[in-house]
Amino acid sequence: MNEHESLLPPFVPTRRSVKVLGLLFMVSAGISWLAVGYDVSEIRLDIAQAGQHGADPATRLAYETAGSLVGTAQLVMLAITAATFLTWLHRVRVNVRALGARRLAYRREWTILGFLVPVLNLFRPYQVVREIWQASDPSTGDPMAWKVVAAPRRIAIWWGLFVAYFALEALAIILIGTSVSAQVIRLGHGAGVLADLCAALSASLAYFVVVRITEAQEAKRSAFGRGRPSELPFDPRDAVV
Length: 241
Prior knowledge:
single chain; mainly alpha; 7 helices; 70% helix; disordered N terminus
């Protein structure tokens, strides 16, 4: 074993994490589709009652209760799924170093910080996932060749839908919570429909992303082991990123 390999972190399979994530993404998508149905029915209720003197209190209370339950379920699933996803993401970022990839642009800390730092969290998580996808590609074992691997557009679409979900959800909350105009409130419910639709589609694409990265890392490990020795001079910084 050469010096480069001896300082590489251990490779840890993530198939079990992917199975859990798959279930969480499916449940999250299902709840989001349920939320879409709720938002559409809310719009229909508003339109049906537009010509009346106020909404029926019992009907309105039932809708508000249902909306509260769906919203709570979404938040709970988002928190659980996010925690599991971040754990998986950090692990696969470590794995790309175990497989021998070198000179990555984003350190492993960005798998967490990328989601927490304001403004940067609009694009840094996408950059981190895209880089992990490239470095996990099993088509080559060269430590530097991953840089020319093309990442699929689905990653950008997944992240774009995820960001759109939060933006539209915030817009819906503002419009519904601060307006006294029935028309603007209906517009807020429309934004809520789009937000939940983005959430459902994003969860489905996220499952594709985690499965493909995990499968790629397993294939690369089978083909090249823990990483091929590099012909480039060893850089001690490679052992800690």
